[in-house]
What does this fold into?
Amino acid sequence: MTDPISIARVGLVAKRGLTAASTVLGELASWLGARGITPVFDEETARLAGPAVPHRKVPREQLPGACDLVIVLGGDGTLIGMADLFASADADVPILGVNYGSLGFLTEITLPELFEALEATITGTASVHARAMLAVRTWRSAAVFADHVVLNDMVITKGALSRIIEIGVVVDDLPVMTIRADGLIVASPTGSTAYNLAAGGPIVHPSVDAMLLTPIAPHTLTNRPIVIPGGSHVQVRPIMDGHDEVFVTFDGQSGFPLRPDDLVSIRRAARPIRVIKSARRTYFELLREKLKWGGA
It folds into this structure.
């Protein structure tokens, strides 16, 4: 439960090209307007809604400063993109994720639950879950080269034709390991059910204050995933020669090639993202359904 959120403007974001959302966008705009709330569309979503739907329209990158709540229609990837955008803008705006298709780990509200969840959010009866994010800084030639904020993970991987790569890992200035592997995942608890899970890492409840270090196909089988305190400072350095191709990616949405002597630093981000939870299922019910575990 949470205190009622003062909501005057609601951002509406749909997955790019999701024409199936057009009707729902119109219904949402009417529902909000009837309650004196202004719907605010990003430009691409406005095109999906069509010219007959009354709304404000702003570029997607301006949504953090233009709304008090954002509704995301699509899947986990769409919500992750918005979470990264809002975190980079340091905006404390809750997100209500609605999944088109099967349930998502983040977009866990189904389309039939949408208006029930929205009503609960406005009246303050919804459950709002704070999800820790990771602040990732890449250093090059002793200067900051790039800053990113991610919800799921930072991943270092070898190129498609590269051999196994070496990666040095330091936590709180203490050497942890040098791994020879296809790569390394540094994940938040939310990201534990993403690439980390596919790579054999553990599932960590999103309320646990932790960070995960998961090697990808390690050459030495004793290099196992490690769960460390969420307040840790992780430094990752690829050990490369001129023939290696090594890439870093951020939530699977952006990235770039690393150079020899680059250093990637990961800490818990200063601000979490707030996600509206479904009132109809617990986290463990969500796991059972998504991972086909069957009944308890």
In short: The first helix runs from residue 22 to 34. The domain at 9-131+272-291 is CATH 3.40.50.10330 (Rossmann fold). Residues 1 and 127 are 5 Å apart (CA to CA). The first strand starts at residue 9 and ends at 14.
